[in-house]
């Protein structure tokens, strides 16, 4: 089976700062994988480097077997990747529904995006607030909107950066149900998360990033046995 995402020896720089020092990871179709690590470890930079949003980068990033390391960001997106950054990127001048409809659908990635009706069925709050100014939505509603916008494009590989951060427990539970539903639909998800309690029941595998490198790979079935190692690495 061709991996949905295969990264080998990924290095990335911001200006003269060398942030990633040879990241290696593999994500199979339909898997949920979580990148764990302390602040500044290189987890967000890994997602940005996959999308070509850092400065210089080198190594290999293969999406469904296609080498993407030399491609510009818009070409990488058209391989079927959707990136949800921590800052969400909701436009204040647009309504929630206009934000949802803003990005074009991807062509040639082998799958149609979710319809607006399907999205509103998954996120009833967005339907109720569809005419509201995008930035007048609550933090949780804005997070739902940021993910929903990606789902409408047809992306099947989702890169989600700290989607649970700062949200009320009830909203975090809604996002957990969303990820479970998307996995059941065959989506592939790579998450960066500080909220280990949120990520633990969702992920098939955990990669621990430290100083721009993967230092541990832990399968979900090994989690209980490896908790002492994980706790030490994360400084919990």
Q: What name does the CATH topology carry?
A: Rossmann fold
CATH class: Alpha Beta
Please summarize the sheet with the most strands.
6 strands, mixed
Q: Can you tell me the overall shape?
A: globular
- Helix and strand sequence: EEEHEEHEHHHHEHEHEEH
CATH architectural label = 3-Layer(aba) Sandwich
- How many E-type strands? 10
Report on the architecture of this protein.
By secondary structure, this protein is α/β, with parallel strands linked by helices. It has a single domain (5-234), classed as Rossmann fold (3-Layer(aba) Sandwich). The protein is 33% helix and 26% strand. A 6-stranded mixed beta sheet has the order 6-7-8-3-9-10, sandwiched between helices. A hairpin with a 2-residue loop joins strand 1 (5-14) and strand 2. The longest helix is centred in the C-terminal third of the chain and has 16 residues, at 169-184. The chain starts with a strand and ends with a helix.
Topology:
Layout: E1 5-14, E2 17-27, E3 32-36, H1 43-50, E4 57-63, E5 66-67, H2 73-77, E6 81-84, H3 96-101, H4 116-122, H5 124-128, H6 139-153, E7 157-161, H7 169-184, E8 188-192, H8 196-199, E9 205-210, E10 213-219, H9 223-234
Parallel strand pairs: 3-8, 3-9, 6-7, 7-8
Antiparallel strand pairs: 1-2, 1-4, 4-5, 9-10
